[in-house]
Amino acid sequence: MESEFIGWLRERLPSHPRLLLGLGDDAAVLRMSHNCVVTSDLLTEGVDFYLAECDPRRIGRKALAVNLSDLAAMGAKPVAAVVALALPRSGALELAKQLYEGLLPLADQFDTAIAGGDTNTWDGPLVISVTALGEPTERGVLTRSGAKPGDRVLVTGSLGGSILGRHFDFTPRIAEALLLQERYRLHSATDISDGLSLDLSHICEESGCGAELDLEAIPIHDDATRLAEQRGDGVTPLAHALSDGEDFELILAVPPEETERLLREKPLATPLTCIGEFVQHAGLWTRDAHGAVTPLTPRGYRHE
Amino acid sequence: MESEFIGWLRERLPSHPRLLLGLGDDAAVLRMSHNCVVTSDLLTEGVDFYLAECDPRRIGRKALAVNLSDLAAMGAKPVAAVVALALPRSGALELAKQLYEGLLPLADQFDTAIAGGDTNTWDGPLVISVTALGEPTERGVLTRSGAKPGDRVLVTGSLGGSILGRHFDFTPRIAEALLLQERYRLHSATDISDGLSLDLSHICEESGCGAELDLEAIPIHDDATRLAEQRGDGVTPLAHALSDGEDFELILAVPPEETERLLREKPLATPLTCIGEFVQHAGLWTRDAHGAVTPLTPRGYRHE
Predict the structure, then answer these.
(1) Which of A171, A183, A263, B157 is most deeply packed, by most CB within 10 A?
(2) Chain A 260-299, residues with CB within 8 Å of chain B CB atoms
(3) Which residues contact B46 (CB under 8 A, 6 or more apart)?
(4) How many domains does chain A have?
């Protein structure tokens, strides 16, 4: 299977100026200029997708997209990705092709070279592991540890209910992150993979501060409203926006004067909303219209 | 599980001058000087190991070692590795720790930073996917496509029967590859993962030439002899040396005068043996003491 698949893939893969040596050797060789930003995400049947219910192209696309979202959160430019597959034996070749058919257009869209990988069959369910390599811009990388009390909490897009489909078909915020990182002074960033409140608490922990949220300002996605209606379980659209995972939007820590400039200039097609402020005291808090502050428990997808 | 595991791993991971930003962010940042050599290997339960029969430390070690062997085959210096795991839910934390306990000493031995990864649990069997990053030396990389007719075929070590244990506990030929690459003019290299004859045929295909082997010169490992005795199935020790996979020794293409110098100077502690010659006509051939040439079918581990 593997040699036949590699033959197919060699035909399909476009040449890429970064890829000095591609498939067909013991390793690939990439042109890199200085530092390398590297991230890895592995998706499994039954946790991240059900093959019986989902077009493999969407799974392949998502496996790359979640990695590109991590590079976006670092403010890094994508360079290349490596794809390792464990395929169920039955129909393995067709499945491998479909995964790549979903993945390749996204790689092309974000100018990401596919630097080979490893293709295996086995008696288990589908596993797809992607490692993405990127490069910092001249402004360096955005980490989770740079938020300072007084910085504003900004988010891209609107949140909640991604499970209705956006968790597969989201666009990683690469273009937005690079533009913001180039034109504005950002202190910190992460992407929303586990849920707004939980990912924000990660920034707070790594930065040694807390955050107060203005709940009324949180941009709630229509999907969150639809999901709350469909389920009728009393979980509000706001609760979905605060705790649903896989929005793959960005959370940013931005100094106040820079926030003003950002909200005035509106440089993105995507909405950018100020939803609160980083504060000295640890923990997450909500602040109502009268300035009353109450603790907020971070909720979201906890990795078992 | 994942956050507890990351806490454990943060304590265990030594700092590394290449690792500008390690665990705890959306991605790691590595100091790289110019080009990046990247390779990935994924190991699965039931194909590469049986967890019930094998100490997880050996599995973790092997998952990194096979990647380092690929870097050795490229003549590249290891820089970092990224580890993605799909762990069976029951006992996941303990298993993750044991895998790393096997992997970390090897990373340390070859000065390889662990640049994070992804740790997941699921209802399936163990999958471990490692991506290794390296850097070319000043001499550039060794590819599979550089062999020229007249070059000698050299191998490190001795071959066959690795399934008796060496397929787990081999030492990747990093030190040997870097020393040879620095001091001698090598044309091509690969590592023996699928079997001597099959991996040699890959060099021939990529280089557009063939190779004649002197069967009497092939260094046969004691394990190949033991395996042939144990199995008593008529497969000779030589056949094992020619076709068993996972020796993880190097096959090199070296110009004749450089081969003479190498064999005279013996720069390695590991044996280095000339076993034949690359030739103009395609295919693999054996040459007997009288110069008679007969075709040799490449055999080894064919990836399904």
Answers:
(1) B157
(2) none
(3) A122, A123, A124, B125
(4) 2
Contact (CB<8Å) B29/A74? yes
pLDDT tens digits, residue range B84-124? 999 999 999 999 999 999 999 999 999 999 998 899 999 99
- Long-range residue pairs from B50-59, CB within 8 A, at least 24 positions apart, any chain: B51/B125, B51/B126, B54/B168, B55/B98, B55/B102, B56/B95, B56/B98, B56/B99, B56/B102, B57/B98, B57/B99, B57/B101, B57/B102, B58/B102, B58/B168, B58/B169, B59/B99, B59/B102, B59/B126, B59/B128, B59/B168
Nearest by Cα to A149 from A251, A283, A254, A279: A279
Q: Are residues A207 and A257 in the same domain?
A: yes
A10 pLDDT band, cuts 50/70/90, is: confident
User: Which chain A residue's Cα is nearest to B190?
Assistant: A26
Among residues A150, A121, A168, the alpha carbon closest in space to that of A5 is found at A121
Instruction: Report if residue A143 sits inside a domain.
Output: no
What is the C-alpha to C-alpha distance for residues B243 and B161, in angstroms, rounded to an integer? 10
Nearest to A259 by CA among A246, A240, A285, A278: A278
The pLDDT value recorded for residue B270 is 96
Does residue A117 contact residue A85 with C-beta atoms inside 8 Å?
yes
Tell me: do A99 and A173 sit in the same domain.
no
Q: Give the strand order in the sheet containing B293-295.
A: B188-191, B250-254, B152-156, B272-279, B210-213, B283-287, B293-295
CATH number at residue B124: 3.30.1330.10
Rounded Cα–Cα distance for residues A120 and B129 (Å): 11
Q: Is residue A66 part of a domain?
A: yes
Best of A10, A38, A139 to disrupt the B interface (most B CBs within 10 Å) is A38
Q: Which pLDDT band holds residue B285 (cuts at 50, 70, 90)?
A: very high
CB nearest B122 (choices: A24, A46, A85):
A46
Task: Report helix, strand or coil for B198.
Answer: helix
Residues 6 or more apart in contact with residue A301 via CB below 8 angstroms: A193, A194, A195, A198, A245, A246
Q: Which of A38, A118, A127 comes nearest B86 by C-beta?
A: A127
Are B166 and B121 found together in one domain? no
| B253 CB neighbour count, 10 Å cutoff | 29
In this structure, which amino acid lies at residue A302? R
Nearest-CA neighbor of A170 among A158, A181, A155, A179? Answer: A158
- What is the rounded CA–CA span in Å between residue B163 and residue B247? 9
Alpha-helix runs per DSSP H in chain A: 2-12, 56-73, 92-109, 166-169, 174-183, 196-207, 222-231, 237-243, 256-265
Within-domain flag for B302:
no
Q: Is residue A300 part of a domain?
A: no
* Mean local confidence (pLDDT), B200-227: 97
Domain limits for position A31: 2-136
- CB within 8 Å of chain A, chain B residues 110-169: 115-125, 127, 129, 131, 133-134, 136, 141, 143-145
pLDDT value, residue B302: 67
Whether A212 and A124 map to the same domain: the answer is no
Q: What is the pLDDT of residues B155-187, one digit of tens each?
A: 999 999 999 999 999 999 999 999 999 999 999
